[in-house]
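Predict the 3D structure for this chain.
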Amino acid sequence: MNKVRFEQSDALGLLTLANPPLNLFDEELITDLRAVVDQAKQLPLRALLVRADGNDCGRPGGLHGRGT
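Done. Predicted structure below.
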């Protein structure tokens, strides 16, 4: 999980897109995101905050040919 970080603070999960400056949604980021969400589902969280390193909180990129 190089492009997504996960932390927990009590009942709050903190998911950070960690691929600045644009946090492009490529295959690796999506794989990392799925792994973090699976991890978060196993915890007694009340909320999951999604944030990003840098100024952009994700944008499509690198997914050509996937119909997205």
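The helical segments are 27-41.
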